[in-house]
Amino acid sequence: MILIIWRKLQRVNVIKLGGSVITDKANYRKVNQALLRNLCEVISSNKEKKILIHGAGSFGHILALKFGLDKPGPIKGREAEIARVISDVLTLDSEIVDELNAKGVKAISVPPHVIYNSNKPDFKPVQSLLRKGFVPVLYGDIILFNGKYRIISGDEIALDLSRKFRPESVVFLTDVDGLYDRDPKKNKNAKLIPSIKSKMISVVDTDTDATGSMAGKMERIKKMVAYSRRVVVLNGKKPERLGRYFRGMETISTVIT
Ligand code: ATP
Ligand code: IP8
């Protein structure tokens, strides 16, 4: 009885698997299979209530940029291109959900283009799956509303979910160790920031993909801290760090409060 009440009260955690981790962002529709398997294994070791999100990686950004879908606009005349990208990200999602289930995570996909159908997302399917003990999985997608299309990033979905579910924590897995003072891929001397207050983050444009890359993420995180106790950026290419984080151990990361 006590266990049942505790489970009901238990707050949810949100984890976003970055597209730069699970796919090779430079190669169209290329999944980093071994890494995905390891990450799913680590995720399965954590029994807390959770919602997963993943980025689109090379299943979304390459064609979205090629077709010019990064700018929102009228659906009319763009149907084939929109459907192509939605189909590609759904393919990535199936691969991820399949791998999660193979490792024992009771993951069920919730396609964002279905729940973002009006001014406000309808998160009832997410809530209902959580209540039944499943792990909902959402992802960066293209949403269609009022005759217009718009790309929605996993980071934006993380913010909307935070507003709705007030998660205990939101974890972003990306392909670098955390947030740096400069892009670590372009500056050898970039320094990792282990912890930072959200109001100290200044968002500099780092536009290299269809949804604003790290700048887009930081813009969302700055708002997210109002709804979640802890926001963490971790290197998803080192799955053992996520394992340490789950076990409450110290690990290399950026904690944003
Ligand atoms: P996706 O949006 O496809 O899910 P993602 O969430 O894994 O991808 P990106 O949007 O690709 O992550 O952002 C991560 C990249 O941001 C890193 O590879 C890094 O090169 C770049 N970057 C730019 N500025 C910074 C910074 N100040 N600190 C850390 N990374 C940065
Ligand atoms: O990878 C982008 O989502 P993200 C979605 O989470 C598309 O930024 C379709 C490019």
Question: Helicity level, as a percent range?
Answer: 25-40%
Strand order of the largest sheet: 4-5-2-1-8-10-11-9
Note the main sheet.
8 strands, mixed
- Protein structure class: alpha/beta
Can you tell me the CATH class?
Answer: Alpha Beta
**CATH architectural arrangement:** 3-Layer(aba) Sandwich
| Strands, total number | 11
Which overall shape is indicated by the principal axes computed on the Cα atoms? globular
The CATH topology assignment is Carbamate kinase
Which molecules other than protein and nucleic acid are bound? Answer: adenosine-5'-triphosphate, Isopentenyl phosphate
Stretches with pLDDT under 50, minimum 5 residues: 3-8
Strand content: 15-25%
Considering the protein shown, what is the CATH homologous superfamily?
Answer: Acetylglutamate kinase-like
Can you write the helix and strand succession as a string? HEHHEHEHEHHEEEHEEHEHE
Give the number of domains.
1
**First-last Cα distance:** 34 Å
Q: Count the DSSP helices.
A: 10
